[in-house]
Design goal:
The protein is of the alpha+beta class. The chain has a single domain, classed as Nucleoside Triphosphate Pyrophosphohydrolase (Alpha-Beta Complex), CATH 3.90.79.10. The protein contains three helices and twelve strands; from the N terminus they run αββββαβββββββαβ. The longest helix has 14 residues.
């Protein structure tokens, strides 16, 4: 996986304009399958999200180390840094860097997060129960989004985009062999 993610691209430098945001995409293996953990945001849209934080400079990983502890309740020493997906721009000048990490299975991590994370196998995104197109009002504009219904959850917006980009990268035949992983620290 690390070899696949090494091929990530950065947006051209736009100086200091735009907020750089690091998003943590946690993965773990269960039943010979890749799974991810999302947070349920009851009063927010989209209702499922990944931990994210603005960061300064060019390296999001120091912020990611703090975020896995606060946002996922996983001790940074138990997290392996796998790499990043291509950087994407968003409304308002955001520059999103999805940082992919391997985490322990929720059963064995001793999580200290108050709300348990939503567990989602990546294969569920290949076979959602329903895909609908909905229009959401964002910054005064109507924006259409695909909404995936997976189990009892709805997934759309940046979390869905990030997961679909990861699946696309993993299924690309030219991705090449993986390299040894290193600790987040």
């Amino acid at each position: 996986m690390r070899g696949v993610l090494e091929q990530s691209k950065r947006l051209p430098d736009a100086g200091e304009s735009g907020t750089k945001v690091a998003l943590v995409l946690p993965l773990y293996v269960e039943a010979a399958e890749l799974w991810t953990l999302l947070r349920e945001e009851p009063d927010d849209s989209p209702p499922l999200s990944f931990p994210a934080i603005p960061f300064e400079g060019d390296d999001p990983w120091p912020s990611v180390a703090r975020l896995v502890n606060a946002g996922l309740g996983v001790e940074p020493s138990r997290v392996l840094r796998l790499g990043e997906l291509d950087e994407v721009g968003g409304p308002g000048g955001f520059r999103l860097r999805a940082c992919v990490v391997a985490v322990p299975s929720p059963e064995e991590d001793g999580s200290n997060v108050e709300a348990p994370p939503v567990r989602l196998p990546l294969s569920a995104l290949k076979r959602p129960r329903l895909i609908e197109e909905r229009t959401f009002e964002i910054e005064g504009q109507s924006v259409p989004f695909a909404v995936y219904h997976v189990g009892r959850h709805r997934l759309w917006g940046p979390p869905l985009d990030v997961l679909l980009r990861l699946i696309e990268r993993l299924e690309r035949p030219e991705s090449g062999p993986g390299l040894p992983v290193g600790s987040l620290n």
